[in-house]
Specification:
It is a single chain. With 288 residues, the protein is of the alpha+beta class. It is built from twelve helices and ten strands. A six-stranded mixed β-sheet has the order 1-2-8-3-6-9. Strands 7-4-5-10 form a four-stranded antiparallel β-sheet. The longest helix has 22 residues. It is globular. The two termini are 25 Å apart.
């Protein structure tokens, strides 16, 4: 477990750490443009006016709201100026949750349901919010000490948080949350198609013709609900898929083709720029 700021060094340490805890309080959004580090993310809003864009959905957040985000989901906050933006962010390695799960208690369930249902926002009832908030405070306090048994307490507090978040999804509680979620059905269908067709030629002309959308309308609405340009989104989703396929042991040339990169050299450059390592080195280091 590591507590600290979002820095390049902290990202590198994730391979050795089970989870990382961050507490920010500022007037700007400090986050990584391309956050895909094979982790689950818990975002807890303490204060500030922020709308979070995740895969085509716009979440207007309130104090105490929580977001569950998978590594494959592109996301971006949009802030209103004039207020302090305070939040807790926890990055968790999937292996950590797998180790603490059992046959009757899959701790990754809440993240999987958030992804499958395209519903990332959690708004707990007052009693459960107090419980989770208290566990977060205790977790943060434990992160700042190396006293005897501190690592056990850290894990225990995080497990408590995860259990309650899973209970929320299992109970299907909504608390009027849909009022603060907006999306464009056309963009939603477009995103579903893109994510299922990354090996194909996904040009603006092809997509606008397929979905009978004006090009300028498509580009405007896509950026509005995802926070990314069409080109940025497709490229990043292809790179996320490429990393996943390489981890499965697929050959680099196969991955290049399956992810829709028409040019091998462009694939090498894009992958290296995004992840700081070439596909070949990633394949050899992380797979073998």
């Amino acid at each position: 477990m590591k507590k600290g700021k979002h820095t390049q060094s902290s990202m590198k340490h994730l391979k050795e750490e089970d989870f990382e805890f961050f507490h920010y309080k500022d007037e700007v959004s400090r986050y990584f443009e391309f956050k895909n580090h094979d982790v689950y993310e818990i975002f807890f809003l303490i204060s500030g006016k922020v709308t979070y864009l995740i895969e085509g959905k716009s979440y207007k957040m309130k104090t105490g709201d929580i977001l569950l985000i998978n590594s494959s989901e592109l996301h971006k906050p949009v802030l209103e100026s004039g207020e302090i933006y305070e939040r807790i962010i926890i990055w968790i390695r999937p292996d950590f949750l797998y180790r603490h799960s059992s046959e009757k208690c899959d701790l990754t369930l809440c993240f999987n349901l958030a992804l499958d249902n395209k519903h990332n926002l959690i708004r707990l009832n007052p009693e459960m919010l107090r419980t989770v908030r208290n566990a977060i405070v205790l977790l943060e306090q434990s992160c700042g000490t190396s006293e005897f048994g501190s690592h056990i307490l850290k894990n225990a507090y995080l497990m408590e948080i995860i259990v309650y978040l899973n209970r929320y999804f299992i109970s299907s509680a909504s608390n009027g949350i849909e009022l603060d979620i907006s999306y464009n059905e056309k963009v939603d269908r477009l995103l579903s198609y893109i994510n299922g067709s990354l090996s194909e030629k996904l040009t603006l002309d092809n997509l606008s013709a397929r979905f009978f959308l004006n090009k300028y309308y498509l580009l405007h609405e896509f950026k509005k609900f995802t926070g990314y340009s069409l080109h940025q989104y497709i490229l990043r989703k292809r790179l996320i898929l490429a990393k996943s396929l390489l981890k499965e042991g697929k050959q680099i040339n196969e991955v290049c083709e399956e992810c829709g990169f028409g040019d091998y050299s462009n694939f090498i450059r894009a992958f290296s720029k995004a992840f700081g390592v070439s596909p070949k080195k990633y394949y050899k280091t992380d797979i073998h």
